[in-house]
């Protein structure tokens, strides 16, 4: 059973000499806005993009933002397999974020169509279509609206695992990742997939993306930057904040080397890659926007404690949203920022 729920989110033992890291504040501005034009996370040159995807010098690339990459992936899926259908609130008009722009015109109203304002109906319809062999893409306009559909997702989609597989939850960090992972979710995976799209990256994140269709694994983390002193693990938009914090620290502390891991798959997550990295560095900091209590980082911290205990030089640290429900005006104080990540990394290094 293959259903894709697209949801848009806001969002060795031994004696080791302790480093005496500097304690004075760095001269760099810490909490500056992410410069998406300069971040090393995005493929800003054709050479970098070709190297990343193993393309030859004649490999076709296109400059896309995340919004365009999502639309491009769904266009490929609809064109490749007649069993693929797309439905949700306003998708036939191009979607509230224009991710399905032009798809209804090309593929017709029987394959790309609007639904009533009923998240549980959208999810339930998608599950039924998938059970009959179709490949539905059920768009939930905002992640905040998905809660009425939890009965369908938890009690129906998830429990098909005992017959056909299991639910997967993934979140891309960039346009190229969105294209490759969404194609895999729709065409290559028999499990229901909850595909989370960070809406803040829709137009902010731009890079070179392979023009031809390609797929990426839905169960593998990716090491974005190798390091030896500490591992930072995150996913989605906070990766850009982590990268900014790491750059500031490595600029301040000579010789410091921090590894950055993109989890990509939130569930089931890639324990092997994470534990291998932490076993190498001996320190781990987990960063995500969801709350501290029962968040993704809680399970990861427990698994790291179980699998890497003898390698740890410091407790596993977490930088997360607070366990509160803030108003929109206070959101910037709730979710992680560069300064909180910077301070947590530094405390972990100095433990």
Key phrases:
Rossmann fold; seven-stranded mixed sheet; 2 domains; alpha/beta; 351 residues; single chain; 11 helices; five-stranded mixed sheet
Describe the structure.
The structure is a single chain. The protein has about 350 residues and is α/β, with parallel strands linked by helices. It has two domains: about 45-210, Rossmann fold (3-Layer(aba) Sandwich), CATH 3.40.50.970; about 220-350, Rossmann fold (3-Layer(aba) Sandwich). About 35% of the residues lie in helices and about 20% in strands. It is built from eleven helices and 14 strands. A seven-stranded mixed beta sheet has the order 4-3-5-1-7-6-12, sandwiched between helices. Helix 6 (about 175-190) links the parallel strand 6 and strand 7. Helix 2 packs parallel to helix 6 (about 175-190). It is globular, with a radius of gyration of 21 Å. Its EC number is 1.2.4.4. Its cofactor is thiamine diphosphate. It catalyses: N(6)-[(R)-lipoyl]-L-lysyl-[protein] + 3-methyl-2-oxobutanoate + H(+) = N(6)-[(R)-S(8)-2-methylpropanoyldihydrolipoyl]-L-lysyl-[protein] + CO2. One of its GO terms (molecular function) is branched-chain 2-oxo acid dehydrogenase activity. Keywords: Oxidoreductase.
């Amino acid at each position: 059973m293959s259903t894709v729920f697209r949801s848009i989110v806001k969002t060795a033992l031994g004696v080791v000499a302790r480093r005496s890291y500097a304690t004075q504040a760095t001269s760099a501005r810490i909490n500056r806005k992410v410069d998406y034009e300069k971040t090393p996370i995005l493929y800003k040159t054709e050479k970098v993009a070709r190297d990343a995807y193993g393309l030859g010098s004649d490999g076709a690339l296109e400059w896309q933002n995340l919004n365009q990459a999502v639309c491009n992936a769904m266009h490929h899926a609809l064109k490749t397999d007649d069993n693929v259908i797309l439905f949700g609130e306003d998708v036939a008009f191009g979607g509230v974020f224009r991710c399905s722009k032009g798809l209804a015109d090309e593929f017709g109203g029987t394959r790309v169509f609007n639904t009533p304002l009923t998240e549980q109906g959208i999810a339930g319809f998608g599950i039924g279509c998938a059970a009959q062999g179709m490949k539905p893409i059920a768009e939930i306009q905002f992640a905040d609206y998905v809660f009425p559909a939890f009965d369908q997702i938890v009690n129906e989609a998830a429990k098909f695992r005992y017959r056909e597989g299991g639910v997967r939850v993934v979140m891309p960090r960039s346009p190229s990742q969105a294209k490759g992972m969404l194609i895999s979710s729709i065409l290559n995976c028999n499990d229901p997939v909850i595909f989370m799209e960070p809406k803040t990256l829709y137009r902010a994140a731009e890079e070179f993306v392979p023009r031809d269709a390609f797929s990426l694994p839905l169960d593998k983390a990716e090491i974005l930057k190798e390091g030896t002193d500490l591992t930072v693990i995150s996913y989605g938009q906070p990766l850009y904040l982590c990268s900014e914090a790491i750059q500031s620290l490595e600029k301040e502390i000579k010789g410091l080397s921090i590894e950055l891991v993109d989890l990509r798959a939130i569930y089931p997550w890639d324990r092997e890659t994470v534990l291998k990295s932490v076993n190498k560095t001996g320190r781990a900091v987990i960063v995500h926007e969801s709350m501290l209590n029962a968040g993704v980082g809680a399970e990861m911290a427990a698994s790291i404690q179980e699998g890497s205990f003898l390698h740890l030089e410091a407790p596993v640290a977490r930088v997360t949203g607070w366990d509160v429900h803030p108003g929109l005006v206070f959101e910037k104080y709730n979710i992680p920022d560069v300064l909180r990540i910077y301070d947590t990394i530094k405390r972990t290094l100095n433990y």
